Amino acid sequence: MIRQDFSRIDPKRRTGLDHRKKQFATPVYQNLEYKHRLNFYVTPPTADITLEQFEQWAIDRLRVLAELEACSFRNKSPAETAEHMKPLLQKYLPLASSSSGSSTLQAERQKDHYSHFILRLAFASTEDLRRRFSRVESMLFRLRFQADDLKDRQAFVESLNLDWETVSSEERAMYAPQLQAAGGGYPKNIEEESFFKVDWERVPELVENRRVFLNAGMAYVPGREQLSMVVAEFTSRLDKALELTSRALPRLDEDDRLTPILNHLSQNFTTPDANYSNSTTALPGADISARNVDALSASFPLCMQHLHRSLRRDAHLKHYGRLQYTLFLKGIGLNLEECLVFWRSSFSKITDDVFNKEYRYNVRHAYGDVGGDSNRRGNGYSPFSCQKILTEHPPGPGEAHGCPYRHFSVDNLTALLQQVGVKDHEVLRGVKEDKEKMKYHLACNRVFDYVHKQEIKKVKDDGTWTSAQLETLVHPNEYFKRSYLLKNLGKNPVEVKEEEKPDVAMED
Amino acid sequence: MPHSISPEDTSTPDEIMSVQDADVDGETQMTEGTLIAESEERNGDTQASDVTDQDMTMADIGNDEEKLPKKELIKDEFKSEVKLEDLFADIESDDEFPSSAVPDVKISSSPEAPESPVHIGPTSRASDPEVMRSFYQRLFPWRYLFQWLNHSPTPSTDFGHREFAFTLQNDAYLRYQSFPTSDLLRKDVLRLNPSRFEIGPVYSTNPRDRKTLRKASSFKPIAKELCFDIDLTDYDDIRTCCDKANICNKCWQFMTMAIKVIDVALREDFGFKHIMWVYSGRRGAHAWVCDKKARTMDDQKRRAIAGYLEVIKGGAQSGKRVNVKRPLHSHVARSLDILKPHFESDVLQDQDPWETDEKFARLLELLPDRTLNEALKKKWSSAPGRSSTSKWADIHALAKSGVSKALDTKALRDAQQDIILEYTYPRLDIEVSKHLNHLLKSPFVVHPGTGRVCVPIDTKRCEDFDPLTTPTVTDLLREIDEWKAPEDSETEDKKLQDWEKTSLKPYVEYFRSFVLALMKDEKDIKVKREREENGGMDF
Hints:
The structure holds two protein chains of two kinds.
Chain A: H1 19-23, H2 51-73, H3 78-92, H4 105-123, H5 127-147, H6 150-160, E1 165-166, H7 169-174, H8 176-182, E2 195-199, H9 204-208, E3 213-215, E4 218-222, H10 226-248, H11 258-268, H12 278-281, H13 293-296, H14 302-314, H15 319-332, H16 336-346, H17 352-358, H18 360-366, H19 373-377, H20 386-391, H21 404-407, H22 410-419, H23 425-436, H24 440-451, H25 453-462, H26 476-487
Antiparallel strand pairs in A: 1-2, 2-4, 3-4
Chain B: E1 4-5, H1 19-42, H2 50-63, H3 68-88, H4 103-109, H5 129-138, H6 142-150, H7 157-160, E2 162-167, E3 173-177, H8 182-192, E4 196-203, E5 221-223, E6 226-231, H9 249-269, E7 275-279, E8 284-289, H10 292-295, H11 299-309, H12 330-351, H13 357-365, H14 370-382, H15 388-401, H16 409-424, H17 430-434, E9 440-441, E10 456-457, H18 473-482, H19 490-493, H20 505-533
Parallel strand pairs in B: 1-3
Antiparallel strand pairs in B: 2-3, 2-4, 4-5, 4-9, 6-8, 7-8, 7-10
């Protein structure tokens, strides 16, 4: 893959052997011809490229992937994502369709192919990186698959040789009502659509959303759902390949040219999931203690206010509520002792014994005071970001965690907002619209802007805060910090440092 | 989670010994220990043999109720007595793995040990450690539990790499226990006497070795039964008869409905065959889907099944909690057909959920037509005490009478279907099903709060299952005592096991047939695979 320096003598190797031939079979498909625009990346590349190309191609692909991941964190719909990605893809990773007759067709496809395999090397090392890589690569594949023209797509799918059993017309007629019901009433006429029969395990997402008819372990997938099946196949193959790559990595007999590049690449793939460190949250002069939480709660975002109110009402919170709230409190700077005091006094209906037995451990675990080695070294979990609260563990019966903007009905949300003092009709209507468009961040920021209207105007007029310090909030702890600073403008002259920006700017 | 203790703290030296050695060694050690303790307790009362001693104490309990101090002294003796029996009364001798507990000693020292009474006085409670120990020792179906998790008669990694977690009497939680055979598991349970134990996944390496591995990634869960957990506390907003941990036969009907709906979906839609439902001992039920295909599913597939079966979403704040697409997916439509009759009888009649004003407000919230709602509200407010059945019928009657001109009949029908689902559809604790490495209480353990045994529920007759008549541990131990050998000589040759003498019998037999069917299927798969491979593999 890399142009080798033949005159170089490697002290680690016995001379007289061409190590290159030892490691790879004779590259029979050195000049691979790319028939299709899309690629399942089954065959590794074997042709030579320069070191500059190696790095540049990888960086280009990484740009695309990072942006794609950011789109998903911002809750963009598939259509918006496609729109957003189009110019970026054109710039960094163009892929023309076979019919376009472009002269750079093969070169584009080669770049796509090679850059994928370079990143595979860079991201195979840890479980976490593998998972993220496979996720964004699947997203990219899906995006391209949808954009592909029909003929290309058909030819590509046929080339995959996936063993899908076509449902006979008798069987189709027999299950007609069930098939139509699973498709949301479509197709109107059962003859209009072809169906495949596959093991349900191959289409888990269709099963999860009840979008296919299931019978005896077989899923009856309509032709138009081909996409999700192809993508699932892509993901599963990539996952397997990544696993194999990670096992081969330690044996990658490599000199010091590729490894630094690869390490550099994987480090730059940072999590936009705003990681909260204690140093950025410290609020000098603030009284962060158990007895002061009630007062501080005025500066909490709605999700935490709701948790706080539920806690005060029921003198109890369920597991995920406790976890979300504990970590938030940890993030605002409440130390472990104070946090234990807070929970103990809040759970007023239970005995010390029960508290010590059932709750104390969890709080300590969240602070990294107990638990496995890695938990303690990492100081427990980090406070949940909006992204995590929005996407993981939706609240069930009797639970108060989650994001009210997302998990509440409009009526209940409005009622809650009014309870916490947001009564302006304009704002409430805006929140309702945001919620309908699933822009939960926007709704939350809208409320923040309303509540801190005067203070924001003041700092803007004074020019004491830059616009970077007022960008969209994506973390409950960021919400609290900014709110607290704004409300205590005069009292605590705090030098807010410029560089303390969240990792990713969210300009929805 | 209570504080966990790393297993190393309690590990015994026999971990490193071979199976047989460990058994013999451990037992003799313990024998010595207990014998010494016993003789000290007896204060020199050495001439009494085991058997006569037991007889005496029986009489003592019967007669000397008022002599408290003496009774206590005797009770201590029981304890040591039971301990002694622990060591010898290995009645569940396993044909495949003959117990290594020196058979000669067993016969010579106390030949009547298996038949000896358990001495559970009327005052003993289920949570009494000795009661628990007797249960594990004499009644727990270790052999079938082993076969169930091992999927074949010869010990394999399916059992050996399986995690067990013990909740000890002091509420300490002991994770990552594993055992090569059922005998060793039984021995450790008798030693630690946990108040309950849970079953986790099969790991890629032995859970006990997890800290000695060079790479942490080589220790990961690879297989576990697909599990479901349904708990009646999740029905608290719709059940009116009980709340919290309490249950009665009325609200148990929710569980019957849940079992019917989930069971049929797992069998018909997903094609699973080996599904066992287990009463959780107090207020819920667990399902264990044991098919090979189900066991090896990853988290994504488990999540898919959980999502497929989840119809009621969101908490109390989310407003309408049933949002299903129309036309109804075949699973939802079938569930609705199953649930409709239950809705009429078990919900409307027995629970009467919309009795008062505030309660029927919730019903009105779920109905789409405003004019109709007004009319209904007027009617119901003027007639307090009108039953929920009548109120449900009123909706239909008033809609027909044309109160609301702009009534969308289809929307109303859909809303009514949603209401039926909201009040009857199973409420799953979905997290249990989603993850491969979730621990779930083992079948046949005793619920420490109620003393009831977590018995399997026969799905064919799940309507007959009554949680309030399931055997409690104290009942069972008494039944052993009261049992008399039948007169006819036929059964005399064959020694009955203790569980066969009690009302636990039908449950263990059900479990046995379930396990046998599962093992048969696994065997067929193995044979088939070997044939396909055609001896190409050299083991």
